[in-house]
Amino acid sequence: MDTLNDSATPTVAHLPERPEVTEDFLASAPGVDTGEQDVRPGLRRLGELGLLDTGLPDDGRGGLLPFLGTVESVARGCLSSAFSLWAQRMGLEYLARAPRSPWVDEQLALLATGERAGAGALAPAMKELSGLGTVPVVARPERGGHRLTGTLPWVSNLFPGAVVALPARVEEPAGEDRRILVAVRVGDDGVRVRDLPRLMALNGTASSSLELDGAWANEEALVSDDLPAFCAGIRTTFLLVQSAFCSGLAVESTEQAAARIHGTTAVFDDDLQVLRDDVASVRARLAEFAQEPPEPAQVTQLRLDAALTAGTAARLESAVRGGASFAAAGHSSRRLRESLFLPIQSPTEGHLRWDLRR
Ligand SMILES: Cc1cc2nc3c(=O)[nH]c(=O)nc-3n(C[C@H](O)[C@H](O)[C@H](O)COP(=O)(O)OP(=O)(O)OC[C@H]3O[C@@H](n4cnc5c(N)ncnc54)[C@H](O)[C@@H]3O)c2cc1C
Asked: The domain at 12-113 falls in which architecture?
């Protein structure tokens, strides 16, 4: 695997592990996977422990490290919950960068305890900035705010009352359209969540399409009036937290595989060694980049490597485990299905490769 950094950097020691959190989320993983329960109780448990807003906002100087450790530990137990935790944290990060107002302060307080779910639909913005499509929501300026119309095809944490940050295009009659970032709440007039589709995994994450039909975002809900600059500022945090949930899955599957490699399965020894090196490289770069802001290409490469490593690890775990890994109810098969989400989660594998070639 191509990496831009030495895998043996000493900073790896600073990515904290929380075994008790892993154990807790492992217990609820089967229900959250199938959708028998959803991710909100887990978010509230983390909120009670004060783990949702540690180091908020990311200072790029190591303040995010404890949170990355939490995300990784949750993902070792349950990727659905770790993905939802990423969405919650991004909601917090976006609002923490918004102009302060009583409305923003109220949302931040409720998001930090997990009482309210947070979500972000930045995928279309990131795609547009890479020259891949156009932001689908149009914002019409009116006195005191913006009127929003359009459909966002995928957003997670779409629970009743959730705060959703989304990009929108302000059409200018003369000149170039502007891009803004605004927030709405699920349940507001004109904000509709389509029926939740049945997914291969992550069914408890309330992921679906969000339709805006004349929804209102007042001035307090204007997170940024300069979307490209906002995305440039948030990109490293966004990708580091995603890389942390990939890393959690990779670590868990690698350990599960390692525990079963003996006797005839020793033929997988070399694969395991390569995997361990890749996992160590991902974790070292996670810790390093959280402390010292990386070049954009370095964090893009990390996110790609983290997702690929998780996929390889889940596959090795399955191959080593044998028939038991094919039982639908087992953790191995869940992790294998979860790993298939990583190449299609924005930025997709294709999008990351595209950015690295540009
Ligand atoms: C369960 C679920 C939850 C989600 N939650 C959220 C969320 O909370 N927030 C959010 O913002 N998004 C969310 N998404 C959306 C997700 O982030 C992606 O935007 C989406 O899955 C990408 O799918 P698409 O259909 O838009 O594919 P496209 O982006 O159209 O890509 C289709 C295919 O083309 C490839 N591709 C794309 N661009 C290039 C390129 N330039 N060169 C080569 N290949 C390319 C991709 O890798 C993919 O294989 C979620 C998606 C799912 C499935």
From this structure: Orthogonal Bundle (1.10)
